[in-house]
């Protein structure tokens, strides 16, 4: 049984990945959709009829839930063709105001993502595989008032690039998806304490376009996928100019 696994599948980028994978991959028997909101996962199951959708109501930051996921893998012994790590969140504002969410972001964005890759890799070893990890353009440099989120996404970017090289011998491609702001529910949580800057609202991308490019870049073995001219220019700028200089303009 060939499967795709998508975390954070109940909304935003994760949900878009599910829909596009269901259309583009002809050899996928099931898509395992993982999120905390059961009703949202059931909606996806109703919407997609040509591929079997297996909802798994899990919190990826919960050790007990990850053990349940591990047991599901052991029981069904699937061949994992695709893993999309889309679960994650961020809080805009000062480090102090974010409080315990600083640790929460690390748990979801970094620790859970790493554990999921560890759990899934043994089931990808004998197959051509793709892993897409949702990073962000925030990964390109430190960001005051988005400090922990940017740091977690820098980890995702670094890990993805290293694993893409490390896993070439197993024919597994790992791609870090690094968009700028995307029109999703992400900002419903992120703007809890502070509103997103106007310039970020002006360059917001549509999730379907970001995912479409990410899939294409992954198919071509790229370790990083950056959507849009503005974000591509930003990524180059972050390589050319001192970060301490750029940070003065993004507070």
Structure report:
This protein is an alpha/beta fold and 251 residues long. It has helices at 12-24, 38-47, 63-76, 95-98, 101-120, 147-166, 186-190, 198-202, 207-219, 229-240, 243-246, and strands spanning 2-7, 30-35, 52-57, 79-85, 129-134, 172-177, 224-225. The protein is globular, with a radius of gyration of 17 Å. The termini are far apart.
Strand content: 15-25%
End-to-end Cα distance, whole Å, is 48 Å
Structural class: alpha/beta
What portion of residues is helical?
A: 40-55%
Tally of distinct domains: 1
Task: Spell out the blueprint of helices and strands.
Blueprint: E1 2-7, H1 12-24, E2 30-35, H2 38-47, E3 52-57, H3 63-76, E4 79-85, H4 95-98, H5 101-120, E5 129-134, H6 147-166, E6 172-177, H7 186-190, H8 198-202, H9 207-219, E7 224-225, H10 229-240, H11 243-246
Parallel strand pairs: 1-2, 1-4, 2-3, 4-5, 5-6, 6-7
Helix pairs in contact: 1-9, 5-6
Summarize the model shown:
This protein has a single domain (2-249), classed as Rossmann fold, CATH 3.40.50.720.
Keywords for this structure?
251 residues, alpha/beta, Rossmann fold, 7-stranded parallel beta sheet, 11 helices, 7 strands, 48% helix
């Amino acid at each position: 049984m060939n499967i795709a696994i998508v975390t954070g599948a109940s909304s935003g980028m994760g949900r878009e990945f599910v829909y596009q994978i269901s259309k583009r991959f002809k050899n996928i028997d099931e898509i395992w959709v993982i999120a905390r909101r059961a009703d949202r996962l059931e909606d996806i199951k109703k919407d997609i009829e040509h591929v079997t959708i297996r909802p798994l109501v899990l919190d990826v930051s919960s050790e007990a839930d990850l053990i349940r996921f591990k047991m599901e893998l052991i029981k069904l012994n699937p061949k994992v063709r695709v893993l999309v790590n889309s679960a994650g969140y961020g809080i805009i504002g000062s480090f102090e105001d974010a409080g315990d969410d600083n640790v929460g972001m690390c748990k979801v964005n970094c620790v859970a993502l790493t554990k999921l890759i560890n759990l899934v890799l043994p089931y990808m070893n004998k197959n051509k595989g793709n892993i897409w990890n949702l990073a962000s353009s925030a990964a390109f440099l430190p960001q005051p008032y988005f400090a922990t989120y940017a740091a977690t996404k820098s980890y995702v970017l670094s890990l993805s690039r290293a694993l893409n090289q490390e896993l070439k011998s197993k024919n597994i491609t790992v791609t870090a998806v690094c968009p700028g702001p995307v029109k999703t529910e992400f900002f419903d949580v992120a703007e809890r304490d502070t509103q997103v800057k106007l310039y970020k609202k002006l360059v917001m991308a549509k999730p379907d376009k970001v995912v479409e490019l990410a899939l294409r870049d992954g198919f071509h073995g790229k370790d990083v996928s950056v959507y849009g001219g503005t974000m591509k220019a930003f990524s180059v700028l972050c390589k050319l100019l001192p970060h301490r200089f750029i940070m003065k303009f993004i507070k």
